[in-house]
Design goal:
The structure holds 2 protein chains of 2 kinds. Chain A is of the alpha+beta class. Chain A is built from 5 helices and 7 strands. The radius of gyration of chain B is 21 Å and the shape is flat. Classes of the chains: A alpha+beta, B mainly alpha.
């Protein structure tokens, strides 16, 4: 095959082309992102609009600095919530739930109350695994930590029909344990209350396992209710 | 990324079984290089509306539309090679599956390019439409071509014929009807789901609650379950035939004629 070098070069070129575009250029554009305060300042501590400002010494555009004494976002996941991400991954929640809010005017994410601004790359920089998702059999979960109580989350995971009749979400009852109430110590402080209609037999209680507690801690940690230099709340 | 594999299989087997050269060598070269150039870029169309820079999405949309070039070129090449020999295709188990796959390749790719347009994607993204599209690609085109390839390879590797034309028929009809049912049900159900998800009244309030849109997908998902059942029947027939072929006594199947399907 005399055209083998041409074939090789051609394949190399086409792969290098897309790799440069999608991977390298995106990395140059976004690779430096760090948690940021809603507004950034220039070298003189004056607030700037957006993300970049012109350095007076070098004349180059540089990234603004975080304001002193203001919370920078996003914040890292810690402890139980961090373990809960693993449970979310293992349970396949990703197949039915997205974690990305689209801008107002593109779909109905804003109108459905899934978020009051579009998700941006910076929201994800501290996530060990990015659970963007491509399917919404169920609602978007970017801000689900702001919508429900822990009790609601437990009841819903134990059996979605309790909170959402007609739901097609599978029950995750195996993350819970039905056990007899200890006659000496009485009901456990972490037992989950169920509505009368779904009550367990007399003398039994519903106890979340470690994994259920972690998963709910993770769900409660999901929120994008802060502004960033590159994105403000939708009016 | 299953495209390159099946390109190999279809480009090899269609001319081989029909005993006639591929329609145009030149077109196949155009198809190969335009595919290599555009396909890598097209992947980002899964992130339309997502948290990535807008230029990435625009590039992905452009590449997805440019994919029409390799698709049309390949379609012309494959379908023109077959034209006039439909009877042979219908009688050969290999080609029946492969040509089914090739036709679906054309359909799924043109649909895919359309789905990368922002206005269409706004409806189809995050719905069962996309799920249907994925199965259209990986099953109706890729899997069916792989089935066809296995029908070609096994007799040559084992030096014996397929034991049962009936089982091939069953495999073919259950899988072809099953996957078509799945694709149609998920496309229609997903499109309705997307429209209902996005519908807003004059005050900008969603017309359907989320749980209403969920309940409205259920009949289409039942249709999908039925299609899954059909696919399972097809796979069982295929499995039986393969099992029978491997474990039957060589003498029983050695110098027989190739197993063809009646017209």
């Amino acid at each position: 095959m005399k055209s083998l070098p041409i074939l090789f070069l051609g394949i190399f070129f086409t792969l290098a082309f897309s790799w440069t575009g999608i991977v390298l250029v995106s990395h140059i554009q976004l690779g430096f992102l760090e948690p940021a305060t809603p507004e950034l300042t220039n070298a003189e501590e004056e607030a700037i609009a957006g993300v970049l400002f012109r350095d007076p010494d070098t004349g180059r555009m540089v990234h603004g600095r975080n304001q002193d004494g203001v919370q920078a976002n996003p914040m890292p996941l810690v402890g139980s919530a961090q373990r809960g991400l693993r449970v979310y991954e293992q349970m396949g929640c990703l197949y039915c739930h997205s974690q990305q809010v689209r801008r107002q005017g593109f779909g109905s994410d804003f109108e459905r109350g899934w978020g009051n601004r579009q998700s941006v790359p910076r929201d994800y920089i501290l996530k060990e695994r990015v659970m963007l998702g491509t399917m919404r059999t169920g609602p978007d979960l970017s801000n689900v930590g702001l919508r429900y109580s822990e009790l609601w989350q437990h009841q819903h995971l134990y059996n979605p029909q309790i909170t959402s009749p007609g739901s097609t979400m599978p029950p995750y009852a195996f993350l819970y344990e039905v056990r007899p109430i200890n006659p000496v110590t009485g009901p456990s402080p972490i037992a989950i209350d169920l509505p009368a209609q779904w009550a367990l037999p007399e003398g039994y209680e519903l106890i979340p396992t470690r994994r259920a507690l972690d998963l709910v801690a993770y769900l409660m940690s999901l929120h994008q209710d802060y502004e960033l230099p590159e994105i403000k709340f939708t009016e | 990324m299953v495209d390159p594999h099946r390109f190999g299989a279809a480009y090899y087997l269609i001319p081989k079984v029909l005993g006639r050269p591929i329609h145009s060598y030149y077109l196949s070269v155009v198809g190969f290089w335009s595919l290599a150039l555009f396909y890598n870029w097209a992947g980002v169309h899964h992130l339309i509306g997502g948290p990535v820079p807008v230029w990435v999405i625009s590039a992905g949309t452009v590449a997805s539309v440019m994919m029409v070039i390799p698709v049309v070129v390949t379609a012309v090449n494959h379908h023109m090679t077959v034209v006039g020999m439909q009877r042979e295709v219908w009688r050969s188990p290999t080609l029946r599956f492969i040509v089914f796959g090739a036709i679906n390749y054309t359909a799924v790719s043109l649909l895919g390019s359309t789905m990368a347009l922002r206005s269409v994607n706004e409806v189809t993204h995050f719905t069962h439409f996309t799920v249907g599209h994925a199965h259209h690609g990986v099953y109706a085109f890729f899997t069916m071509i792989m089935f066809g390839s296995v029908y070609y390879m096994m007799p040559r590797l084992l030096k014996r014929e397929w034991p049962s034309a009936f089982l091939i028929h069953t495999h073919w009809w259950a899988c072809a009807l099953g996957i078509m049912l799945m694709v149609v049900a998920l496309h229609i159900g997903g499109w309705i789901q997307g429209l209902q998800m996005n519908a807003l009244d004059e005050d900008g309030v969603p017309v359907f609650t989320f749980i209403e849109t969920v309940r409205n997908t259920v009949p289409w998902l039942h249709a999908r379950s039925i299609s899954g059942l059909l696919l399972m029947i097809g796979h069982m027939a295929f499995f039986l035939n393969v099992f029978w072929m491997i474990f039957s006594k060589p003498a029983a199947v050695s110098d027989s004629k190739p197993t063809l399907l009646g017209a």
